[in-house]
Amino acid sequence: MKKRDPEKDTYITCLMPEPSLSQAFNAVAKHAPPGGRTVRPEDFHITLNEIQIPRKSSMKKLLKRIEKVSFPAFDIKFTDVDSFLYTKNGRLKNRFSHVAWLRPDGKSSFDVQALHEKLYEALLPEGFVFEDPDMRPHMTCLYYDEDKDSQALKKFFEECSTLNMPTWRCDKIYLTKKKRLSDPTHPDNNDGKGSRYEIVASFDLKN
Q1: Mean pLDDT over residues 34-50, rounded?
Q2: Most buried among 53, 160, 188, 194, by the most CB within 10 A?
């Protein structure tokens, strides 16, 4: 499996919702434990594949590979909030600084995973993809510091077990580039404004 090169730009294929979905979640997030950092609306996305362009290839080849992927548009419905929690010495901990995420329902997860796999198979021959082919469909929505009380988060997740989120019609794949911290347009260098991702191209989902 190809490894990341820290000197190269990293791209992701992803699904990006309409602003109404992030606005609906941010209304829910008002009831989350204090201290959380919500994801800015323009950064809400479901990652499909992480990509770097090897020396032997090009952006033109990458775009052609993605464009050839055939997959019908589908609906995504989020049912609840979850996190990458694990138990250590009888206490809930989190390996990823309490990253909380929206969970798609069963059918939505199946479609997202199937699309991920199609893209992976299309990009692998050119050496574009380097992450594990398995994935867990999720959309990151909240960040907490690692020492945040996990029981308070667990209670919030229980309260979100029947989310009434708008159904999202997913009809495009986006190719985005992760902005480096040295980029003046990165939110950390721009008074928190803007996105951490630059949209490079979009592709209509089609049969």
Answers
A1: 88
A2: 160
